[in-house]
Write a structure and sequence with these properties.
Elements (H helix, E strand, L loop, with lengths): L2 E2 L3 H18 L3 E6 L5 H14 L5 E6 L7 E5 L2 E4 L2 H8 L19 H5 L3 H14 L6 E11 L2 E6 L7 E4 L5 E7 L3 E6 L11 E8 L1 E4 L7 E3 L15 E4 L22 H6 L9 E5 L4 H10 L6 E8 L3 H13 L6 E6 L5 H19 L4 E7 L1 H14 L13 H9 L3 E2 L8 E10 L7 H9 L2 E5 L1 H5 L12 E2 L8 H24 L7 H16 L10 H12 L11 H14 L1 H12 L5 H14 L9
Parallel strand pairs: 1-3, 2-3, 13-17, 15-20, 15-21, 16-17, 16-18, 18-20
Antiparallel strand pairs: 2-4, 4-5, 5-6, 6-7, 6-11, 7-10, 8-9, 8-11, 9-10, 12-14, 19-20, 21-22
Helix pairs in contact: 9-10, 11-12, 14-15, 14-16, 15-16, 17-18, 17-19, 18-19
Length: about 625
């Protein structure tokens, strides 16, 4: 039984030689690494145990590896028993309550250099904790050897029993995700710095599928796709972990979407209302205000008991920082969590991020609470998945996307649901964002997501450049939940609005080619222009639904037609102020809170509000 030297090059050569010998001899060879020279008695005991396990003679080869610090590591084919100090401390970081013992290196991996800095009494404490927390001090693990690595993807030999989406880990703490389970090779996506992995490295099974931390501790935090903190506020002491990729609720476990989730944006709440448990797509070209709508929806959830999760996929970190600053300034971080996978992060992290946020939100939904998730955006998410798939040698299809790209987003968005009362009545609402090019909603990813969701808010670049904010096209935008997600007063008020806007857009296009128009047509165009002006809204200024109803009721009654167009914004603000400050406005609010229904009594109270504030804006006044 030879003892090989400790030089890494010599060990590598010896390992290759033994692998060839083992293949030709068709019998197992036990490769044993010791941190220091073993005694003859230790070697004899180990060999006896091996021969007993394999029911016959076993060849052994012994190496010296000081990096193990203490103990030994035994490898037989693709099974490894790690009884070294390095292996024990590496496993400790997965045990709860050890965040403060200095095991983490840059928050992601454990290094032997960091372990070497521990004091003797700290090492003893670590080992004692492991012995108390585990049934046995060490265990065997299945591992795979890296055959090739590049662009964040690794192909591994071995791991015959690995699970799909299982986490794999090297001795240095680099984490990978098993994705391609082929007959002889496993394709894995590296979730950390891929430059730390080289051919010949070993990834061992962890027995855990990729999971995300959940619970109250995540509220107000900024974390990455694996739930690791990015805001410098210390470790996240979560209530537990849940798998990021799970089945969606069944039909029996759901109920109809019938409770509004108001965004505070008049155009959306009136024309394309969103209900709790709905999936409403926000779609449009770049820089047309898609993210602004989602952020306004988050701002409008203040005090309404809805937990919000904003997922940034493939964005710049500076953009995420500005969103975090805005939410923090407006107090929205008290109920919001931001999950970040920036453009500089590996594609696997961008792939996992939406599922991580969905799992965090499901924690509250399954406990009877309400959650809102914004996926910004699924176009970049699909691109990251395409990159991974092509590197994993999956066959490309339309626009080079793999054939399962539809399943990628459907299994994510189907998890949004309004649960039945028997399941607690919680809800998870999804606002996915998709970016188009030149308003082309017939491209592959937009049509995929449109077919999955319950409606779409289409932002038109032309309207945006004309100054309409938000630039929603009411003709293409739709909500398949409709009036079920509106209070009765809003449903009655917004009913004729879509028809009036559609008529206006048609007549406006016709009027460009004709100067001789009858009075009825001119009146319809004037009404449409006043409606479009009323529907303009500054970003990050959500409006309560009772104020929206008041303004829209005035607009559909043509009260703003009599006001110069350049003063309509001022008139709308006057209505808001009158509702907050006058006795007539307070009486309207009190009545609306008791019965939000557009009956004669509510109309009378609204007329009193209008009489208080609108006459001064008529033509020739002010």
């Amino acid at each position: 039984m030879a003892v090989w030297g400790c030089l890494p090059a010599l060990r590598s050569f010896a390992a290759d030689f033994l692998e060839l010998y083992e293949a030709s001899a068709e019998r197992p060879i036990a490769k044993i690494e010791f941190a220091a020279f073993p005694s003859e008695e230790d070697l004899r005991v180990l060999k006896e145990k091996l021969e007993k396990k394999y029911n016959g003679p076993v060849e052994t080869a012994v190496f010296l590896n000081p990096e193990l610090l203490a103990g030994f590591r035994l490898t037989v084919r693709d099974r490894m028993l790690d009884a070294s100090l390095l292996g024990r401390v590496n496993r400790l970081k997965n045990l709860p309550g050890l965040e403060g013992l200095g095991l983490e290196n840059d928050g992601r991996s454990v290094s032997s250099g960091g372990i070497a800095q521990l004091k003797p009494d700290e090492v003893s404490a670590l080992i004692r904790h492991q012995l108390e927390a585990a049934d046995k001090p060490f265990d065997t693990a299945e591992f795979g050897v890296v055959l090739s690595v590049g662009d964040g993807m690794a192909r591994l030999d071995g791991l015959s029993n690995v699970m799909f989406n299982e986490l794999l880990e090297t001795d240095e703490g680099v984490v990978a995700l098993a994705l391609n389970l082929e007959e002889y090779v496993v394709g894995a996506a590296i979730l950390d710095d891929g430059t730390k992995v080289k051919e010949g490295d070993r990834f061992r099974r962890t027995g855990r599928v990729v999971s995300a931390p959940v619970g109250e501790a995540l509220t107000g935090r900024v974390v990455d796709a694996l739930g690791r903190p990015l805001d410098g506020l210390g470790a996240v002491k979560a209530d537990g972990k849940m798998p990021v990729d799970v089945d969606s609720p069944s039909i029996i476990e759901r109920k109809d979407v019938n409770t509004p989730l108001a965004t505070g944006i008049i155009t959306i709440d009136a024309l394309t209302p969103i209900g709790r448990g709905q999936r409403e797509l926000i779609i449009g070209d770049r820089k047309t205000g898609k993210t602004t709508i989602a952020i306004d929806a988050i701002l409008n959830q203040a005090g309404k008991g809805v937990r919000c999760f904003y997922v940034s996929v493939g964005q710049k970190m500076s953009s995420v920082a500005s969103i975090h600053s805005l939410l923090k300034e407006r107090g929205a971080m008290s109920y919001t969590t931001i999950v970040v996978a920036t453009a500089s992060d590996p594609a696997p992290l961008q792939y996992i991020a939406p599922y991580t946020a969905c799992t965090m939100a499901e924690y509250w939904r399954d406990r009877g609470g309400h959650a809102l998730v914004v996926y910004d955006d699924l176009t970049k998410h699909a691109q990251s998945y395409r990159q991974m798939s092509l590197l994993l040698r999956r066959p490309p299809g339309r626009e080079a996307f793999p054939g399962d790209i539809f399943y990628l987003h459907s299994r994510l968005l189907e998890r949004a649901a309004q649960l039945s009362d028997a399941k607690g009545g919680g809800s998870l609402t999804a606002l996915p964002i998709v970016e188009t090019q030149a308003n082309d909603i017939s491209a592959y990813i937009p049509t995929n997501v449109i077919s999955i969701t319950d409606g779409q808010i289409f932002l038109e670049a032309g309207l945006f450049h004309e100054g309409q904010r938000p630039a929603m096209n009411p003709g293409i935008s739709v909500s398949r939940v409709g009036g079920d997600a509106q209070v009765k007063a809003m449903k009655a008020t917004a009913g004729p609005l879509r028809t009036q806007l559609a008529m206006f857009r048609e007549l406006e296009a016709f009027s460009r080619y004709s100067s001789d128009l009858d009075s009825a047509t001119l009146d319809q165009i004037a009404l449409g222009r006043s409606l479009m002006r009323v529907l303009r809204q500054l970003p990050n200024s959500p409006v309560d639904v009772e104020k929206q109803v008041a303004v829209l009721h005035a607009a559909t009654r043509k009260l703003f037609v009599k006001i110069p167009e350049n003063r309509i914004d001022e008139a709308v603000s006057a209505i808001y102020s009158a509702i907050d400050e006058t006795d007539e406005g307070k009486a309207y609010l009190k009545r609306f809170a008791v019965l939000p229904e557009m009956d004669d009594d509510l109309k009378t109270r609204l007329d009193a509000v209008y009489e208080k504030c609108l006459p001064r804006f008529a033509v020739g006044k002010g």
